[in-house]
Predict the 3D structure of the following.
Amino acid sequence: MQKGHKTAVYDQELKIEACRFQGLLQPFPNHFHEYYVIGLVEKGRRRLWCRNRESVLEPGNLVLFQPKDCHACRPGDGGAWDYRSLGIAPAVMRELSERISGRRELPGFKEAVVRAGEISGCFLNLHEQILKKASGAEKKEALLDLLKLLLRNCGEPLETGEQGERPEIGRACEFIEKNYERHLSLEQGTALQEAALRTGFF
């Protein structure tokens, strides 16, 4: 089976990562990221589950994941999928948001999937500059231009916690981090969780 191709470049100046996926066929099980993801679908269709909602991803869609947004997707039409994304750490996003709005806070996004419209041009300009490892003020301006459009058209206050997580997700993540060295069966994991509840861990 064709595995597709992934290109990833971390930009040291901007402190963000640009990824490009081409020819992907495999599904992605339910997962989340510790950082923001801004993505653009270029080819193919997928079914996405995020924020208790199912959406159809198609070319021209912009995907907006907040930190710890649980999501999963699978091919929607049997064809290969091409997709670009930018990964932005919460600390970096907070600094950028302050430069744009004057408020030092983490932004949220109203929807996980929107039509890119005029945003796609800004996104592709920045993404290509990062992949080509360009430097200089033009790249920084491209990032600010992209985020200004996003926050104006899709943004809202992130009201659900420091990094956009529900409290139970944060507790679950902390539990996993403390027990990551254990190879747990479902029964063992349940027993450990019950023990944690009794001792007040959760």
Notes: The chain has five helices and twelve strands.
